[in-house]
Every structure is written in C-alpha cells, then in structure tokens.
Design a protein that fits this description.
Blueprint (H helix, E strand, L loop, with lengths): L3 H27 L3 E5 L1 H4 L1 E10 L4 E9 L2 E2 L4 E5 L5 E6 L3 E3 L6 E3 L36 E3 L10 H12 L7 H6 L9 E3 L1 H6 L3 H12 L1 H11 L33 E3 L5 E3 L3 H13 L4 H19 L16 E6 L3 H15 L3 E5 L8 H10 L5 E3 L12 E5 L12 H12 L4 E4 L14 E5 L11 E5 L5 H6 L13 E4 L3
Parallel strand pairs: 13-14, 13-16, 14-15, 16-17, 17-18, 18-19
Antiparallel strand pairs: 1-2, 1-6, 2-3, 3-4, 3-5, 7-8, 9-10, 11-12, 19-20
Length: about 500
C-alpha cells in the first residue's frame, strides 16, 4: 500500500515521462520538414530540411542548407534557440487527420526559443511537394498562411481531396468548377510572403559583383586571357565606335562675304559675295544645271517652306476646305520674279489660293514669260495693279521684287506701291533670294530664303534659311569652294548667327 507521498512521486514521474514522450514525438514529426530560420541581420536567413531536433539542448539542425538563397558549402548546420528570431515552415512532410472533422489538416508545430518568446513565428501552408524538390540551387518560395477566419482559409488537404474526387470519377463538377476550378486552387489559401523572399536576396553582394565585372580592369584582364574568342562587353555609357572629332567648318570659300552662319547641328556656313555666287551658278549651268531646272528646284523648296509656314497638315486638310490659306506673290520682271512665279504654281497645286502680282512690262525675260504661261494653267488669279490686291490681311506675302542685277528697280513707282501694300497688310513676309547691300530693305521680311550659299544680307531681324538647289560638290570645287553639304536629310535648313 502506497502512502500519499508515494502517490505524488509516481504522479510526478508519470508527468515527466509524458512530457518527454510528447517532446520526442514532436521532434520526430519535425524531421524531413523544410523550414526557414531567420537569425537576424548578422547571421541572415537559412533554409533547409530538418535533420535533427534536440529538445533538451534547444537546438535544431538543417541538412542541405541555403544561406540567403545561396547553397551553403556545409552539408549540415546546427542552430541554437538563442540565435533564432523567427522560424517558418515551408513544407511539412507528415499530415494527420483531426478526429471528428472529416477533413485533413496539416500538422503544425511551434519551435519557440526560450529567449525569444516575444517573437511571433509564422507557419506556412504546405506546397504539396516533397522536400527533395528543394535540393536544387533555385531559391525556395515562401508562402504565408492566410488570416484565421477569412473566407479563403480552406485546408490544402480539402482542396486536394476535392480535385482527386473529381478526377477519379466522383461527383459531377458544378459550372463554376468547370470554368474556374482547373488547377488554380492549390495555393489559393496562402499569401505570397514578399518580405521573406526579399530577405533572401543579398543585394549588396550582387551589386558588388556587377560593379566588379563591369570595371575596365576586370574586362581588360578577361579579354587578354581569352583573346578575341569572346566579344568585349561595354557599359551603357560607353561608345562602341571610337568617335572622331567633329569638324564644324566644312565649307571654306576663297572670298568671304564678311558674315558666318551656323546650322542647328553647329556646322559653319560662310556667306559669299554676289560675284562668287554668280560664278558658281554659271559653272553649274555649264555642267547641265540649266536655269529652268534651277527655277523648278527653287519653286519646289520655297513652296514647301511656305506650306510649312501656313500650318502644314493642320491647315491643309480635306476637312478644312472652307479655310483655304491665301498667299500673295509680289514678282518683278527678272529671274527672282520667275522663281516667285514657280513657287506660286506649286502652292496652287497644293490647294492654296494664290494671287500673283506682276505689272504689265513691255519687255520681260523669257524665263519669266514661260513661268507665267505655265502658272496660268492653274486657274489662280493674276493682277497687274496694287489696287486689285486684297485690302484685308492675307495669310502670307512672298516677296520677289528685288533684283541683283538692277538695284534701281526699287525707285520705280510700281515697286514702291507694292512695298507699301506689303508693309501695311500686316501679313508675314517671306523673301526669296533678296538683293544684297547694306541699305535697309523696302519690304520688311520675317523670313529670308537664300539659294546654295547665303549672301551678305543687311542686318535685320529676319530669320535666314538656306535652300539646296542641287549644285554638285565638284562644281563648288571648280570655283575654289571646298564644300560638304550641311543639309543632311533636308532641302531647307535654318541658319543662325553665332
């Protein structure tokens, strides 16, 4: 017969044995599970398969471990409970059925260190894959349990049983399952752990490796070791081709006009005196660039510039036929006037309402007569008196009154009346190939178009443009001009004063 003290001793021994057996069973349940252990900023994060758990010494060992997403060289690592801040299950090998529920639930264990009771350990749902799938070098995806009591907190085993029953000829699937249930409910109950996966990425080590591989010294050593077998890599801020210094003065002239211009890309375009410009045009005519061809080229380029000044496609559109732009051409009985008539013909062909002012001269050059005869077939208006010009402002005035050969034309009455009308109409003025000289221009132009090379124009606020009339490079060389085209992909370019 046992006394009361003996009963107490037997009860204590029984409780101690029960706690020991329970701890051993829990430790056995942990074996083979894939866990993630957070040891803080100093030691980092480890992942691996649980190989042993010592409840007495409060240690846990992982085999085939990963450190911050990189495979460890050691086959096994042991952690103490003091160093562990957080422990998460990634894959639990064993599952049990809770009695009375009728559905499977994943076994959940808690390994709370003695010195870390205030840390909350998160347990992940199982992936449905064995621990052998994590033996590769790829990082392990961490899933986090959905909040308790949420609408999506279904068991993974329940979802698996449902899918298996359907595939094995079980109950007929509903319409929703047929539409939305195909292979999409494996991880529906788990949230992706962004913080855990981000912690696995050692950004400092990767960026230091990238910077080290991108340096000039490492690249040079690699190139010398392997020779020319592998192409050399370049950084985003390095140029593949060796850039040669840009020569901005690509045009040199034997006689300078006294003024330099520059293009948008910085190329220098010098001005030339009218005598050198005249010899250049004569040399071009000897090689086949006749006056008729030059007039046609000038008309096309000047009309294209005028169409741009009028608004281009925003103004000239089939939906805007009720607002056709109006252009007035002021031309004289000379080559500059013939260039203006050619420009008016092309403008009329593009739907612009053109009014040509050309006085009735007793004698006109043949080129002017031919251009006027061709212009008459456009059906556009032609007047000989300033009184027949519009009183209201027009969209654009093109001035071709000046002549290089006869500067005295500006003293005649028809010239002065046309100039006064242009200045009073308040419409912007485009001058094509104006005369040179230091005197003030009778017609105040907003834009000036020069041909081939610019002439030394008077100091005005007019914006200078240059037109390519098709003179070959060797023709420039014939008159002593070293020439390289500054036009690029355009036929009309703006010129700026340095």
């Amino acid at each position: 017969m046992l006394c009361s003290g003996s009963h107490i001793l037997v009860a204590e021994l029984y409780q101690h044995s029960f706690r020991k057996i329970t701890a051993n069973r829990m430790a056995a349940d942990w074996l083979g599970s894939v866990v993630s252990i957070n040891c803080g900023l100093t030691l980092g994060i480890y992942q691996g398969e649980v190989s042993s758990v010592n409840h007495k010494s409060q240690t846990i060992s992982l085999k085939q471990p990963y450190h911050n997403g990189v495979r460890c060289p050691l086959p096994e690592v042991t952690f103490s409970a003091i160093d562990i801040k957080e422990l998460k299950f990634l894959d639990i090998q064993k599952t049990v059925n809770k009695p009375g529920t009728g559905q499977g639930a994943a076994t959940e264990s808690s390994f709370t260190p003695s010195a870390r009771h205030n840390q909350s350990n998160r347990v992940a749902l199982p992936h449905g894959t064995s621990s052998n799938s994590h033996s590769s070098t790829a990082p392990i995806t961490i899933l986090r349990r959905a909040p308790t009591g949420s609408s999506n907190s279904r068991g993974a085993t329940q979802a698996t049983q449902k899918k298996n029953s359907v595939r094995n000829g079980g109950p007929m699937r509903t319409r929703d399952d047929e539409c939305f249930g195909g292979g999409t409910d494996e991880n529906m109950d788990a949230d992706f752990d962004f913080e855990g996966n981000l912690a696995l990425f050692d950004k400092a080590a990767v960026f230091s490796k990238i910077d080290g591989n991108g340096g000039h010294s490492n690249r040079a050593q690699h190139h010398n070791a392997q020779g020319d077998q592998k192409p050399q890599s370049y950084r985003h801020d390095e140029n593949i081709l060796e850039a040669k210094p840009v020569i901005y003065r690509q045009i040199t002239v034997p006689q300078h006009g006294g003024k330099d211009y520059c293009t948008d890309s910085g190329l220098v375009v010098p001005s030339v005196p009218y005598e050198l410009h005249k010899r250049l045009l004569a040399a071009a005519e000897r090689w086949g660039l006749s006056l008729e061809r030059r007039l046609e080229t000038t008309g096309v380029c000047s009309s294209q510039m005028a169409l741009t000044l009028l608004g281009g496609p925003n103004r000239l559109t089939p939906k805007n036929v009720h607002q056709r732009p109006t252009v007035v051409l002021l031309c004289g009985p000379h080559i500059q006037g013939a260039q203006g008539v050619s420009c008016g013909r092309h403008l009329a062909n593009h739907g612009v309402e053109v009014i040509l002012f050309l006085p009735n001269f007793v004698k006109m050059q043949e080129s002017v007569t031919n251009e006027v005869h061709l212009y008459s077939r456009t059906g556009s208006k032609q007047v000989a008196s300033v009184k027949d010009l519009p009183i209201s402002p027009v969209d654009l005035v093109i001035n071709c009154l000046d002549c290089h050969e006869n500067p005295l034309l500006s003293e005649q009455s028809w010239y002065q009346s046309a100039a006064d009308w242009a200045n009073q109409n308040r419409a912007p003025v485009l001058s094509i190939d104006p005369a040179t000289g230091g005197q003030h221009q009778p017609v105040e132009a907003k834009w000036t178009l020069s041909l081939g090379l610019p002439l030394p124009l008077a100091e005005t606020e007019s914006r200078v443009y240059l037109c390519d009339i098709g003179i070959p490079k060797l023709v420039f060389q014939e008159v002593g001009i070293s020439y390289r085209s500054p036009f690029g992909c355009k036929f009309v370019i703006p010129l700026h004063t340095p």
